[in-house]
Design a protein that fits this description.
By secondary structure, the chain is an all-alpha fold. It has helices at 6-36, 43-66, 72-102, 111-121, 124-134.
């Protein structure tokens, strides 16, 4: 495997950034909501819900992007098939970083950039590998 292809790295970076945007919308939105209201839910429940919502919003965003290139069924199948493993890795790494830095389910100005960086860098090699080996991508 050639890990030095600049074109593939650029494409993998672009794909990963779209995935990060989609995941962050649902994930951060959920954490922000539970940070803003009084509730009795456990941190693990809020974090699990944040991960689930991040996966959902990422699938929605990627499907919408792919609709420019294909029909709905193909778009949603591609969004699931091409990047779901990447999204799971991204979500788990972002939320594990949140737990390590803040104790979990806590958005702070200083933790968010670190969470985003870790969420971006974790699936990037996998996305490069998929693009290089199969010449497939979501975007």
């Amino acid at each position: 495997m050639n890990w030095k292809c600049k074109h593939t790295w650029k494409r993998a970076i672009n794909n990963t950034l779209w995935c990060l945007l989609g995941c962050s919308i649902g994930d951060f939105g959920t954490i922000f909501l539970f940070q803003s209201i009084e509730h009795t839910f456990s941190i693990s429940f809020v974090m699990s819900l944040a991960i689930l919502n991040g996966l959902i919003t990422s699938i929605i965003l990627e499907t919408l992007i792919l609709l420019k290139q294909m029909n709905f069924k193909s778009a949603i199948n591609t969004a699931f098939g091409m990047s779901f493993i990447s999204m799971i890795g991204m979500e788990l790494s972002m939320n594990l970083t949140d737990v390590i830095l803040t104790g979990g389910a806590m958005l702070t100005w200083w933790a968010i950039p670190i969470m985003l960086f870790v969420g971006f860098i974790t699936p990037l090699p996998y996305n490069y590998y998929k693009l290089k080996k199969y010449n497939v991508g979501c975007h």
